[in-house]
Amino acid sequence: MKIISTNIGEKKEIDWKGKKVTTGIFKYSVDKPIFLDTEDVKGDAICNRENHGGILQAVYGYSLKHYAFFKELYPNLEFEMGIFGENLTVDDLDETKLHQGDTFKLGDTILEVTVQRNPCMKLGVRFNDMKIVKQFWNTTFCGVYFKVLQTGFVKAGDIFEQIKSCPENPTIAELYVAKRVAKGM
Questions:
Q1: Phi/psi class of residue 161: alpha, beta or left (left: φ > 0; alpha: ψ in -120 to 50)?
Q2: What is the pLDDT along the chain (185 residues), one digit of tens a residue?
Q3: 159 SS3 class
Q4: 134 SS3 class
Q5: What separation in angstroms does the CA of 124 have from each of 75, 127, 140?
Q6: pLDDT for res 89
Q7: Looking at the DSSP assignment, which residues form a beta bridge with residue 148?
Q8: Exposure of 171 by Cβ count < 10 A (0-12 exposed, 13-18 middle, 19+ buried)?
Q9: Which of 98, 108, 96, 97 is nearest to 148 (CA)?
């Protein structure tokens, strides 16, 4: 796994069907290293601390390979790195192979796989179409949240070097499917 793009976003207020929505999901690629801190990425807006950021969700990674699936569903949408709200766009991040607790050295940091990303309406706002939320739920292309065990900088081109494997723990895809079932979807 290799970082293709590092992405951050600013707090943005938009009018969504007559309702004011504040979000940090509009993330864009940056051409400089980003600092992964214990509870968030420095310079990246998190507008809903209840569901994003914090120790277990400090950094969000998403696979570039998943973009192709959604590009077919949204051929007229301009797909920029970070469109899914991820801090790290990774060439081949596979939720069916990553287990909770798996740990990686990445740039100056050490990251631990924690939980899946459950989509919310802000993803629909970003795509300007709420159908994306259900479509996202109906895949295992959820992306991965990481806990930052050692803070530091990462940049495009950095490689994930696995330093701990936890095959006894559930995969991120298994956690995501279990969450979908628990929600009755």
A1: beta
A2: 999 999 999 998 988 888 898 888 999 999 999 999 999 999 988 877 777 778 999 999 999 999 999 999 999 999 999 999 999 999 999 999 999 999 999 999 999 999 999 998 889 999 989 999 999 999 999 999 999 999 999 999 999 999 999 999 999 999 999 999 888 87
A3: strand
A4: helix
A5: 16, 5, 17
A6: 98
A7: 111
A8: buried
A9: 108
Which 8-state DSSP code applies to residue 171? B
Instruction: Annotate 19-79 with DSSP letters as a single string.
Output: EEEEE---EEEESS-EEE-SSSBTT---S-TTTS-SGGGSEEEEEHHHHHHHHHH-TTS--
Q: Name the phi and psi angles at 93, rounded to 5.
A: -95, 115
Give the tokens for residue 163: 């330093």
Report the chain's terminal Cα–Cα distance, integer Å: 31
Residue 2, amino acid? K
Q: What is the rounded distance in angstroms from the CA atom of residue 71 to the CA atom of residue 75?
A: 5
Q: Could you tell me whether strands 88-90 and 59-63 are parallel, antiparallel, or unpaired per DSSP bridges?
A: parallel
The values of phi and psi at residue 4, to 5°, are -90, -40
Contacts of 19 (CB under 8 A, 6+ apart): none
* Residue 177, amino acid: V
Q: How far is CA 17 from CA 68, 94, 130, 136, in A?
A: 28, 35, 12, 21
